[in-house]
């Protein structure tokens, strides 16, 4: 599913909120993002977004200082807890602040913040609970400079995930996502990993619990300041993704029940 219409009327049957009444909160899980945070912030459509929350995972650069100079809420972890752990803080804080829709946007300027209206449109229309910004719709991944080993591993993992989960998504591994409040309140994401595999686990949960997933095409930028996990971290991530699928199959077949899929 793709969508570009942000002037959406409420869906009476689904109870979807209108753009004018929705509280849209952008969360930014940050680690050493001082050089790119300002550019990311400047491109966020302020008229649409109600609040911006930066959660700093104990950076060693000036990320917090830059964040404090901007009109955003800054939370700093006293020690590093990992990418998944950072997201847990992001989503809990956004829910606590009354978010109807929560955007995850990396502050490294790899993804285009100006796509936020398109990201929230399917949720506002009541057509999706999650929206993924896909780098593979429209062929933007390689054009944006994605390393070839990441391209190949992404294609392998996404194909495997589609086969196991019964989905037809172009990409599972984007860091640009939108979640409805209903989804975050009902899915036990706090039980997920504190590592990068959090992203794969939460999509397995979305499928298991019957939530609707949509995609829009996004461009991506690869440059020295953009955060990226190294080769061996990518290998560990890939193994974690496959492990999440094993847990999903165990729960669906009632062979064993992972705590990720206990309502």
Detailed description of the structure:
The protein is α/β, with parallel strands linked by helices and 263 residues long. The protein has a single domain, classed as Spore Coat Polysaccharide Biosynthesis Protein SpsA, Chain A (Alpha-Beta Complex), CATH 3.90.550.10. 37% of the residues lie in helices and 13% in strands. The protein has nine helices and seven strands. It has helices at 37-42, 63-68, 83-96, 116-124, 140-143, 148-165, 181-186, 198-208, 231-252; strands at 24-30, 51-56, 73-76, 101-104, 130-134, 177-180, 213-217. A seven-stranded mixed sheet has the order 3-2-1-4-6-5-7, with helices on both faces. The longest helix has 22 residues, at 231-252. It is globular, with a radius of gyration of 17 Å. The two termini are 27 Å apart. Mean pLDDT is 90; it is low at 1-17.
* Unreliable residue stretches: 1-17
Q: Approximately what portion of the residues adopt beta-strand conformation? A: 5-15%
- H/E element sequence: EHEHEHEHEHHEHHEH
CATH topology: Spore Coat Polysaccharide Biosynthesis Protein SpsA, Chain A
**Spatial order of the strands forming the largest sheet:** 3-2-1-4-6-5-7
Largest sheet: 7 strands, mixed
Helicity range of the residues?
Answer: 25-40%
Number of helices: 9
| Rg from alpha-carbon coordinates | 17 Å
Give the name of the CATH architecture.
Alpha-Beta Complex
Mean pLDDT: 90
Return the domain count: 1
């Amino acid at each position: 599913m793709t969508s570009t219409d942000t002037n959406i009327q409420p869906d009476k049957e689904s109870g979807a909120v209108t753009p004018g009444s929705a509280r849209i909160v952008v969360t930014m899980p940050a680690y050493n993002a001082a050089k790119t945070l300002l550019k990311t912030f400047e491109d966020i459509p302020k008229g649409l977004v109600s609040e911006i929350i930066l959660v700093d995972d104990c950076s060693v650069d000036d990320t917090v200082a830059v964040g404090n100079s901007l009109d955003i809420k800054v939370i700093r972890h006293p020690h590093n807890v990992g990418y998944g752990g950072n997201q847990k803080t992001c989503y809990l804080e956004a829910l606590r602040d009354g978010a109807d829709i929560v955007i995850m946007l990396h502050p490294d300027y790899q993804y285009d913040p100006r796509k936020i209206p398109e990201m929230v449109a399917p949720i506002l229309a009541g057509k999706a609970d999650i929206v993924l910004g896909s780098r593979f719709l429209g062929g933007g991944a390689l054009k944006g400079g994605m390393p070839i080993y990441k391209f190949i591993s992404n294609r392998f993992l996404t194909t495997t995930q589609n086969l196991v989960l019964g989905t037809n998504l172009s990409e599972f591994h984007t860091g640009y996502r939108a979640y409805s409040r209903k989804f975050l309140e009902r899915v036990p994401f706090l039980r997920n990993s504190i590592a990068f595999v959090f992203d794969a686990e939460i999509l397995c949960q979305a499928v298991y619990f019957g939530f609707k997933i949509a995609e829009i095409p996004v461009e991506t930028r690869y440059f020295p300041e953009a955060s990226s996990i190294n080769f061996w971290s990518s290998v560990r991530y890939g193994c974690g993704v496959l492990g999440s699928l094993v847990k999903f199959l165990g729960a669906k077949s009632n062979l064993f029940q992972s705590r990720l899929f206990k309502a």
